[in-house]
Amino acid sequence: FLMIRRPPRSTLDRSSAASDVYKRQVKNLFRRPLIREDIFTDFMSFTKYKIEGDERPDQVAYNVYGDEDLDWVVLLANNIINVRDEWPMSQGDFNNYLSEKYGDTGGADLIKHYETIQIKDSKGKIFVPKGKIVDSTFKATFLDSGTNQLVEVSPIQGISYRTYEERLQDDKRNINILESRFLSYVIDEVETLLDYEPSSEYINPKLKRGSNPNLG
């Protein structure tokens, strides 16, 4: 935390400076610890978790650790800084986002691009993989090894802007959860890293003085 001090309203009235001090404890958003590299890079330190519905970080922390105040551990384990942009939106926020970006007249349901669907021959050999972006006229021709016949297909499907945006959100739902056995260690280490060192602004390990000239 920082203790913010407001400067005097008028630099001309020096005598009132002492009585015009305004203090407030605020979080220091510029201090951000990291999980130690050997833990962060060890896949055995984490388990996979899929965010369901409108789950928030604090709800995930409660479900996993039984403590909603450990939401910062969930975010730290996934290197998430901006929750608004890096965490999946709630359904209401997502609907509003689509309306703002694509309008309310069906723009989100227009085709963004075309993708291939998987095509196999009669023996199960894949000739057209799934998910390759192609144009609307794409066709594929192959020799079926089971029937020895030449086959021509148009294996495409249109992907709307809505589906595209839903996929982006779904990608954010797959997160890593720090294993409980490492939890106390990480908490102790982070608390130590965040302690302030003695200085002219030092009050205690969790608090130091600061000033904001924009307050007044």
In short:
The protein has 216 residues and is an alpha+beta fold.
Structure write-up:
The protein has 216 residues and is of the alpha+beta class. It is built from seven helices and 13 strands. The chain has a four-stranded mixed beta sheet with strand order 2-1-13-12, with no helix packed on it. The longest helix has 12 residues, at 91-102.
Distance between the termini: 21 Å
Q: Spatial order of the strands in the main sheet?
A: 2-1-13-12
Structural class: alpha+beta
Shape estimate: elongated
C-alpha Rg (nearest Å)? 27 Å
Summarize the helices and strands and which ones pair or pack:
Elements: E1 2-5, E2 23-26, H1 37-40, E3 46-50, H2 57-65, H3 71-77, H4 83-86, H5 91-102, E4 111-116, E5 119-120, E6 126-128, E7 133-134, E8 140-144, E9 149-153, E10 156-160, H6 161-172, E11 174-178, H7 183-194, E12 202-204, E13 207-211
Parallel strand pairs: 1-13
Antiparallel strand pairs: 1-2, 3-11, 4-7, 4-10, 5-6, 8-9, 12-13
Helix pairs in contact: 2-3
